[in-house]
Give the backbone structure.
Amino acid sequence: MEVPILKQGEYLIASIQSALTDADLLQLRDVLVEHVGRYRSRGVIVDVTALDVMDSFATRTLRDIAHMIRLRGAETVIVGIQPEVAFSMVQLGLTLEEVVTRLDFEEGIAYLNSKKAGSSTKLGSAIPRRTK
Amino acid sequence: MAAASSFASAEATLIATAISELARNIVLYAKTGEIILKIVENANRHGIKIVAGDDGPGIADLEQAMQLGYSTSGSLGLGLPGVKRLMDEFEIVSAPGKGTRVTVLKWRT
């Protein structure tokens, strides 16, 4: 099943609705990486609340998605990993490494907004001021 | 099936994930094989038994295959030891050219 992707301002939201095949996951990866450029998005939220199984392939593909999107200049947040899914992932030794995860959609949006605010402040303060 | 045999949802997730990994190994190394699920019962408990078998190339060094991070496919090296941790009982029979048969069992708590 194809994952619907919504454009919400500067963000893209991919809300996974049901179990995905390997091909669906790879398609999601390709579409997101392409859409980030097309819509000049700053952030991507991948909502996995509906997934009750995340095996090694799903985990690796989500990690790849986040890394590719970072290379395209945007941030990715994975939201909604269920307690039992987290448990199985840890038992299997699967990690998302430095990929950002948040409890739910709301926290994901808050994270992206804070990154946006953070980067503009940084930009402002990064202007070198030299006083003589 | 795990849910139907009244496993808690967390356990059903563990079982589904283990089956997914076992199926992945079959497709990756042997191309074809079979997975048989069975409800097992004894005097005071019941559980689910999964037998994943194939007639693929088999595994030469089982001890090595059971080490965390070992993989000859170069991609997903966490399969077997991970599955072992997910389940209560784990048995593997394999020899080069003779295929592989992994039997795992999860008891309902």
In short: The interface with chain B takes residues 52-57, 60, 82-85, 87-88, 91-94 of chain A (CB under 8 Å). Residues 5-105 of chain A form a domain with the Transcription Regulator spoIIAA fold (CATH 3.30.750.24). The longest helix of chain A spans residues 105-125.
